Amino acid sequence: MTDSMAGVPAPGNAGMDDPPRGEPETNGAAPPPEADAAPGPPRPRIGDTRPAPPRPVPRPVVGGPVANGAPPPQPPAAVVGGEVPADGDEAAPKRSRSRRRGGRSSRGRSVGRYFMCVHVQPELTQIAMLEGRSLVEHYVARGSDETTQIDGNIYWGRVQNVLPGMEAAFIDIGIPKNAVLYRGDVRYDRDDIESSTAKEQPRIEDVLRPGQTILCQVTKNPIGAKGARLTQEVSLPGRFAVLVPNSGTFGISKRLGDNERRRLRRIIDDVRPAGHGLIVRTAAEGATADELARDVATLLEQWTAIEAEASRSDQPRLLYREPDLAVRLLREELNTEYRAVIIDDPALYEQVRRYVASVSPELAERVELYDTEIEPLPLFERYHVHEQLHKALDRKVWLPSGGSLIIERTEALTVIDVNTGKNVGKTNLEETVYRNNLEAAEEVARQLRLRDIGGIIVIDFIDMEIRENRDKVGSALRTALARDKTRTQVGDISELGLVEMTRKRISEGLIESLSTTCEICSGRGIVLDTAAL
Ligand SMILES: [Zn+2]
Question: Is the pTM for the entire model greater than 0.70?
Answer without folding.
Answer: no
